[in-house]
Design brief:
The structure holds 2 protein chains of 2 kinds. Chain A has helices at residues 2-21, 40-43, 51-69, 74-93, 106-109, 111-133, 140-165. Chain A is mainly alpha-helical. A 6-stranded antiparallel β-barrel of chain B has the order 1-2-5-4-3-12. In chain B, strand 4 (145-152) and strand 5 form a beta hairpin. The chains are: A mainly alpha, B alpha+beta.
Chain lengths: 171, 274
């Protein structure tokens, strides 16, 4: 269990660096779609992680992002919401006998279940994030458009990670 | 009492969520206050250093554009040199000018990190208090107005660019002197809007917008060209769109301008408006 946490922590550090150094520069359609892959570190946390440490982890992950994007509070709030929603999303798609594996992945959950699980969480995070970013300007539909397109973009990266790590089960 | 404890224990997850969410919202609302805090400067130190390392690598990719910008600006400056002017009249003698005093001082700086696809965009510069940078200095590029410095650490400064919903600049129409306020609606990083230009102003598409002199900006820094100016039904003000001169996708070297008389102006204004 401890080694899973260490792996998660290393994974988080790698993802934040990847996000800050590369993905923050990446955008499609004149900036309408931007990937926010760092939230994968919350999505990929082990399933049995206690609920009470899930929230601080989400909050701190978002705050770390905020440090780099100079948007104090915005990523923290969105990632916190993601962490809050995670147990409920997992509960709603859990089969009756429960999942076997510790880590959510295509291997452990099956393709459709995993897509629903990660897709829902990404959508919640992005809607919340862009809602906050555009809150002061009141451009509701612009915010929703950004959120939907960016969700697709983020999902592409998440599924890519899944496909590449499928053979290597230890990740 | 026992029931109360049980309530908190059973709903700890929801209560924790609400508490942390309140902290987040507090951070968002106190954005400006937060920028002056030591904590924020410490985090700038870390993120600034990482950005500087990144720029050290990616710089080579943009040398072409950077060189072109510098060469173009050198040409402009050479045009202003004494040697570029022919003598037409020998009756004048140049004497050492004591009537003038330096009001604006320019500092050069390099952009080490910037965004333009987001709503809340920002630019990081590679100089801070050690280089003489202070909050509320104007930032311009060779093309025109970029933004304003909001916070500085020892080695880095954060610029609030035109393309940020919280920024606003006092501007005027060149040669016509209608005043307005430049803001950005968050949609397109090439286009900003001007508010508070009265209906009766006679403007035409293509008119140049420049900065109005304030305690921060010198007069006449180019900002953009008017793309459209429309009457709005029931409003006293025109709806003006401006095509910005600065290309935020392509910005490497900037100048920060210090107004040496800012303190004097601020103190007399403070007294006058009491």
């Amino acid at each position: 269990m401890i080694s899973t946490y260490i792996k998660s922590a290393i994974g988080f550090a790698v993802l934040v660096l990847l996000q800050v150094l590369i993905l923050n520069e990446v955008s499609l359609f004149d900036g309408w779609a931007q990937p926010y892959l760092y939230i994968y570190s919350i999505i990929a946390l082990p399933m049995q992680i206690p609920k009470r440490i899930l929230l601080p982890i989400g909050f701190l992950a978002g705050l770390t992002m905020d440090m780099f994007t100079h948007t104090p509070g915005i990523h923290a709030s969105a990632t916190l919401t993601l962490a809050f929603a995670r147990p409920y999303v997992l509960k709603s798609i859990r089969p009756r006998e429960g999942f076997e594996s510790f880590v959510p992945s295509i291997n452990s959950m099956g393709g459709i279940k995993y897509f629903t699980y990660s897709g829902l969480l990404v959508l919640i995070h992005h809607l919340w994030l862009f809602g906050l970013l555009y809150f002061s300007s009141g451009l509701l539909f612009v915010a929703i458009g950004h959120a939907l397109l960016s969700s697709l973009f983020t999902m592409v990266f998440i599924l890519l990670i899944q496909f590449f790590s499928q053979t290597n089960k230890s990740f | 009492m026992k029931n109360l404890f049980r309530f908190f224990y059973q709903n700890g997850f929801v209560i924790g969520f609400i508490l942390l969410q309140i902290i987040s919202i507090w951070l968002i609302i106190n954005y400006t206050y937060f920028q002056q805090s030591k904590l924020y400067q410490a985090s700038n130190y870390i993120s600034g250093n990482i950005s500087a390392k990144k720029t050290a690598i990616t710089d080579y990719l943009y040398l072409d554009d950077a060189n072109r910008q510098l060469v173009e600006e050198n040409a402009e400056l050479k045009n202003d040199k004494v040697e570029s002017f022919a003598i037409v009249n020998k009756d004048y003698v140049v004497i050492n000018d004591t009537l003038r005093k330096i009001k604006y001082r320019h500092y050069t700086s390099k952009v080490i990190n910037s965004t333009y696809t987001k709503v809340e965009n920002f630019i990081t510069l590679n100089k801070g208090t050690i280089g003489g940078f202070k909050p509320n200095m104007a930032v311009i590029s060779a093309d025109g107005l970029v933004g304003i410095i909001t916070s500085v650490s020892d080695n880095f400064s954060i610029v609030l660019p035109i393309i940020h919903p919280r920024s606003w600049f006092s501007v005027q129409v060149k040669h016509k002197h209608y005043f307005g306020i430049l803001k950005w609606d968050g949609k397109n990083f090439n286009i900003a809007q001007i508010a508070e230009v009265a209906n009766h102003a006679e403007l035409s598409v293509g008119d140049t917008i420049e900065t109005r002199e304030s305690d921060i900006f010198p007069e006449g820094i180019p900002v953009g060209k008017i793309m459209s100016a429309e009457y709005v039904e029931g409003s006293n003000f025109l709806d003006i769109s401006v095509d910005l001169f600065v290309d935020f996708t392509n910005i490497y070297y900037v100048y920060a301008i210090e107004n040496m008389m800012k303190l004097e102006q601020d103190s007399i204004e403070l007294e006058g408006y009491k």
